[in-house]
Amino acid sequence: MGPSTTTTPGTDAEPIAGPDLFLDPDLAAKRDALLATIRGYGRVAVAYSGGVDSAVVARAAHEALGDAAVAVTAVSESLASGELEEAQALAGRIGIRHRVIRTEEFADPNYLRNNSDRCYFCKSELYGRLVGLMDRLEVDAIASGANLDDQGDHRPGMRAAGEKGVRHPLQECGLGKADVRALARAWGMPVWDKPAAPCLSSRIAYGEEVTPARVRMVDQAESWLRARGLRLLRVRYHKNDMARIEVAPEEFAKLLADPVRGELTAAFRGFGFKFVALDLEGFRSGSLNDLIPPEQLLKPRVAR
């Protein structure tokens, strides 16, 4: 499926504009470096999920390049409900051109096998499609939202980015997660404090096959929890259709009190889970990486 234009930002999608607020001199210097770096790419396509990192890169690209920048959102079974609509609305507020493409990582047996390098095959699919679309998109470079803090994590997708020549302007300009959130806040972006939202396949325990049915179970379960006011959460899929719920410890009582506990259990079983567990350690981003043997953990190289 080729790229398609999105043009419905929503009725309350006023443009993001005005002076940059709350910027200290160090962050202002990083902002200026970010704009200059992206300007040096020429025309650019931003791999844009709508999360805070890629949104800041999209905002910077639009400011630096105007119509020579385009944000591209990939859609597949691993995208959580509501994420595309939020990304579309935010792109409209930023004012950047926006395209939506379909990726087919679920057609790759290496991806479905769900070993610890699953993300490599996902990003290879995404960046490969973006490279193939560069002429149609009329761009000279592809930019990601990877920030400086991502260098210290298990990120097989960074290897795929390096192979495809993807640029990482936040890393190149020394912006970590805190810098990105501060810049997003200064720019008046509503996602400045949005929790990280990696793809649904990242909730499936390594070694358990990734299937559309399993990611749908996770999506339904997380949507159920969000509908009850929880924001920071994960539902992890483990062997034998077990759901392991991660929420902030202060939310435990809310889930364990009746009638919510019974309603939660019944709802999750309706989604296809046979067992439901609450992780007493609470929410931990990337907790499934604890299951990876140390020798398999990757220290990604930054593409320059």
TrEMBL record:
| Any one GO molecular-function label of the UniProt entry | transferase activity
Give the encoding gene's name: larE
Tell me which PANTHER family the record gives. EXSB FAMILY PROTEIN (PTHR43169), NAD_GMP SYNTHASE DOMAIN-CONTAINING PROTEIN (PTHR43169:SF2)
Query: Which InterPro entries does the record match to this protein?
Result: LarE, NAD/GMP_synthase, Ni-pincer_cofactor_biosynth, Rossmann-like_a/b/a_fold
Q: Which organism is it from?
A: Paludisphaera mucosa
UniProt KW keywords: Transferase
Protein name, please? ATP-dependent sacrificial sulfur transferase LarE
**Sequence ranges assigned to domain NAD/GMP synthase in this UniProt record:** 43-104
